[in-house]
Each structure stands twice: as C-alpha cells, then as structure tokens.
User: What shape does this take?
Amino acid sequence: MKNDVIICRCQEVTEQEIIDAIRDGASTVDGVKRRTRACMGLCQGKTCERLIERIIARETGKNPAEILPNNARMPARPITVGLFRDKEGE
Ligand code: FES
Assistant: This one.
C-alpha cells in the first residue's frame, strides 16, 4: 500500500519515500535526508525531524532515543559583494 502522507512539508516528501529510503539502508535522520531531501527545507527539519525519527523507529524496531538526529545547517543565501564594501566604508 502506497502512503502518500506528506511528512516533510517544505520538500514535499511523503511517508512512502521515507520508508523506501529506510529500506534502501538509511538508519538515521541524516541518511533519510541524503536520500529524500527531507529536513533540507526552509524550517531545516524543525517540523519533520521528529516524525522521521518515529518512522525510522517503527520501521527498524529501534528505540527513538537511539536514532541519530539531523545535522542542521544554517540556510545559506547569496549576497552581493557590495554588502561587504558598504560595511567597510562606515
Ligand atoms: S518540514 Fe521538513 S524541512 Fe521543513
């Protein structure tokens, strides 16, 4: 049965895609992240990380406390060089 419930709203990753990633060998949130892009959206996993941990726990039989968390990174946005120049001119 295909499960189309969206778990990661930012990247539109479904529960089935996460289950497929786990069956492909992912056993951590980062493993799921690399395979599906879940946790890479604007909220950086604040909304979906706990749900993904629970799905991993359910599918692997692990205790949720044993599952390694997501390595969150600050969102990077391109800026113009002029922003540095303006700061130095103050
Ligand atoms: S809901 Fe997954 S990154 Fe925002």
Observations:
- The CA atoms of residues 80 and 86 lie 11 Å apart.
- The domain at 6-88 is CATH 1.10.10.1100 (Arc Repressor Mutant, subunit A).
- The chain has one domain: 6-88.
